[in-house]
Please model this.
Amino acid sequence: PTAGAILLTHPNGAEYRLDQLRGDHINRRAGVARTFQNVRLFAGMTVLENLLVAQHNRLMAASAFGIRALFGSGRYRRAEQEAIDRAKFWLDRIGLLARADDPAGALPYGAQRQLEIARAMCTEPILLCLDEPAAGLNPRETEELGALLLQIRAEGCSLLLIEHDMKMVMQISDHIVVLDHGRKISDGPPAMVRADTKVIRAYLGEAEESEEQAEPSLEQKA
Model:
């Protein structure tokens, strides 16, 4: 690949240049989903509807862009029921099944974080990218989030995470990249990164003489 290329190899053997794919094809063809640093739910829609929206492309294909849905096609009804079942499965996983009909914006912040992850998982990705998922969470919510991500990873979905919460990163990572001032200072398994003097120095705030103090960012690949 050329410099700057982002290459992903799908389990089916296909290779995708993510930097050249259309935005919707990154999910539909390459199987990549993501969440955002700032929660981006549809606050006025119900919790269940937020997860059905994630399956819009699949439902539209099953409905022949509305024609089969209009005539009550059996194929569309089956696809619709599968989408509802998949949404309910993920709501049960994150403990929100009882609130399926509540507006998503009425959920506590930690629950909104988990709902956003569940929405991404409804697309059945092979790679889930998360941008600071623990930002704004209290310790209990962070622990619950870590447990959810461990379950997702154990079930075969790879994770790529940017996060500053060292405890959670160390808990779920098998490979970590540490950046300080945009410069890579460590790259390897958690035990090696944890013992790296450059990482320790950066986290203790002992900046280089020519640099201002800053907290490093961590990219995690699982």
